Amino acid sequence: MEPKSFFAIERTFVQWASAALWLLTVAALITERESDTGGATYLTNTGIALCIGSIILLFHAIIVYFRRVKLLQTANPDGYVDKFGPVVLTGVVFVGVLVLLVEKTKTTGGVRFDLASTKLLHHEEGTCVLNSNEGVSALLYQPSDVAVDVENDLLLTVSRTHVFGHSKKDPTAPIRQLIESPGADFEGLTIAEGRIFALSPGNVGKVPILSEFAWEEDGERLWIAQQFRLGLNEGDSSEGITYVPGNVAGQGSLCIDMGSGQLDLYDLPSPTSSGSRPPLFPKNKLSQRMIVSGLDDGKIGALFFFEGVLYILHDNDMVIRSWDLSAGLLLSEMPLPRVSQPDAEHQWAGLAIERKELAKTSRLYLRGDDDEEDDDDDASNRQRSGGSSSSITVHLTLDSPPEVWSFSVREGNQKGELIFPTCAGANN
Questions:
Q1: Rounded Cα gap, residues 318 and 415, in angstroms
Q2: In which element (H, E) is residue 106 found?
Q3: Torsion sign across C-alpha atoms 359, 153, 349, 276
Q4: What residues contact 372, with CB distance under 8 A and at least 6 apart?
Q5: CB 237 within 8 A of CB 201
Q6: What is the pLDDT of residues 307-321, one digit of tens each?
């Protein structure tokens, strides 16, 4: 028997091992697609199946190698044909490439393969409400944050150089343009003790600017009452802002995202500050490492402080986290609603939460189904809201496509946990 025959079967074994490793690469690409599509379970299962197929193929290759060595040593002319390996390799490669093609087609706007098991965000009257954009072009409207103006019964939104108002009473009513500020780039919005503040990020060559608005006498439009510079550094990418009330009126703090998950606390500025754009300096900083711990990206899209809990919207990670500021503890992590356009899933940009008191004659269960077994939960919810039933609404804005959503949510078993309805498409 010639030695080159043994070298030939060794080369064949190496080629089969290479095929198994290539199959592992395809499996890794498929599981990587899972994070880009909001956690599709079928992608994970397909990746695991391909990994198992790769292992089986590798063991089959080593078994065939030793069998052929034995056949050569015994000079047996039969048994060299491999009928199993090529079939398995062809099948698993076909499945892997097919899954990649399907996902690629979905993200490039081609033919969409909708899975029956996939739940996506859709309008549902009274539960998942899409507020009207009538009155402004979708090409010009990019709502990056939202705030609840209880006194004027409006949902305020900021979009580049504008501040708009959505009617809370009638979600189908046209949008009101409240102010246009040429040259501004509003990203964050909050209301602190009746005062309206908007945040403009400090892009290259600019310092972050905090603008305070006031209503004109007729109550129809806003005007810029004063502006402040956040520190003296250029290039800070600030997007999120919220008001954290203090124990005494007027002594609360503005919590501002300074980029990369860094949250700074500023004193609430005086309503009558002197000078042109006086600087504000942070009085404290929250732990950046803790805020972004466990996240792939950590970028903050919006902030909101509600009933003692700080809610942080991480747009690129597709989650909302709730924090107990006094204890420094992560309370809960909630998935964001899933939209029909895969390229828009990371565009959630604004967050606001409000509790609405309901009529005493109404009966609303925030933690469970409306059966007799939930009487204890109903009683605890009434006690929490001061003796009357209440509901919680979460307002979210999509930057692109421009959409403002209002969700009627339930409270979970843990403090700071909010459960989105089925029509939100979130995997609660």
A1: 20
A2: helix 85-107
A3: negative
A4: none
A5: yes
A6: 999 999 999 889 999
